[in-house]
Design a protein that fits this description.
67% helix; mainly alpha; three-stranded antiparallel sheet; globular
């Protein structure tokens, strides 16, 4: 193998580093909003910076040097392990709830959100199955494989409940399935099932219905379900063209409900304005474009499908968050990748990028 083929993709690494760098600055500023409210931010910041940034950077380095073909063998075990971890959120004494959702497990003073790992391992499992059964992808057997991978994550994540996270998992695995060469008929079937499932969730889960109502009519219940969207739009609009300046956001101190989580883009927009928020969006677009370009340059199917799935779920999650803050789609509660608070989320996201960088070593330039 030539030296050029052994080098990781530097543009993707640079874009990731840039997104994380901007994320740390925005997170630091947004954290001041919680501090002013009297919230304890030390443990949260340490979790984000030590576990997320520190652990994630180490994981990225290790995985980028690992032969990604080993992941094909490990995929079923990793997927099974993440399912077990996700199921532990329902075990008393291990799992714990916050805001009416059971999404975390805690032990020895350490907490994590296992569904974040499930996003990555679901993609790995889908890629593994489609390569193993590649001669049957265009049969109904391919749909059975897709359903088999999604059914357990759907059950575990929707029971938490966390509709947004399941949506991200579904997008990543479906992208792998479509990229494997499925027929248009099967794509139509998947789309129809997805629309039907979404309709059921809307009419059976009051909080989902309330978010849809808020999206359709932002003036609905402005002190309740529409409050976060209203305050987000005020923050984004207040930023103007160039923003108020770093650290100068007003909305983060008293008004935005989740300044370090799913509202962090609103904080960035208020402080950096239209120019800054546009640059953040362009960085995510460049990240996605570079990743998909790499997928076309990888000589083996497993590596190519891995990249497609990982880049899809990271990019979809980012754009869903941004769109919901701009009131272009209903609120989902999904955090902004690389930026929002969450040690587990940042750790897994950087690990996923490490896998993509490992695959990029085999790409033809």
């Amino acid at each position: 193998m030539s030296a050029a083929r052994r080098i990781i993709d530097k543009p993707l690494l640079f874009l990731t580093a840039l997104l994380v760098f901007v994320g740390v600055f925005v997170f630091s500023s947004a954290s001041l909003g919680l501090l002013a409210r009297g919230s304890a931010v030390t443990s949260m910041a340490l979790n984000h910076l030590l576990l997320g940034l520190g652990g994630g950077t180490l994981a990225l380095f290790i995985l980028s040097r690992l032969n990604y073909r080993l992941l094909k063998t490990l995929a079923p075990y990793a997927f099974g392990f993440s399912l077990i971890l996700t199921a532990l959120v329902f075990v008393p004494g291990i799992g714990y709830s916050a805001g009416g959702a059971a999404r975390w497990i805690a032990f020895a003073g350490f907490s994590m959100q296992p569904s974040e790992l499930l996003k990555l391992t679901s993609v790995m499992m889908m890629a593994y199955l489609l390569v193993e059964y590649r001669t049957r992808v265009q049969e109904y057997w391919g749909l059975a494989l897709l359903g088999g991978v999604l059914v357990l994550p759907a059950a575990l994540v929707l029971m938490q409940p966390d509709t947004g996270t399941f949506g991200v998992i579904a997008c990543g695995t479906c992208a792998v399935y479509f990229a494997a060469g499925t027929r248009l008929r099967d794509i139509a079937i998947v789309a129809a099932v997805g629309i039907a499932l979404l309709t059921v969730l809307i009419f059976t889960r009051p909080y989902v219905m309330e978010r849809v109502r808020t999206f359709m009519n932002p003036a609905h219940d402005q002190r309740g379900s529409s409050y976060q969207v209203k305050q987000s739009l005020i923050a984004i609009g207040s930023g103007g063209f160039l923003g108020r300046g770093y650290g100068q956001s007003i909305q983060k101190f008293e008004y935005l409900p989740e300044p370090v989580n799913d509202s962090i883009f609103a904080v960035a927009s208020e402080e950096f304005g239209f120019v800054g928020s546009t640059l953040i969006i362009l960085m995510f677009i460049a990240f996605a474009a570079r990743g998909f370009w790499l997928a076309t340059k990888v000589p083996d199917a497993f590596g190519s499908l891995l990249i497609v799935g990982i880049i899809t779920y990271i990019s979809i999650q980012a754009f869903i968050n941004i769109a919901s803050m701009l009131s272009l789609m209903p609120l989902t509660g999904i955090p902004l990748v690389f930026m929002s608070q969450g040690g587990t989320a940042l750790l897994v996201a950087l690990s996923a990028v490490g896998v993509v960088l490992s695959v990029s070593r085999s790409a033809t330039r």
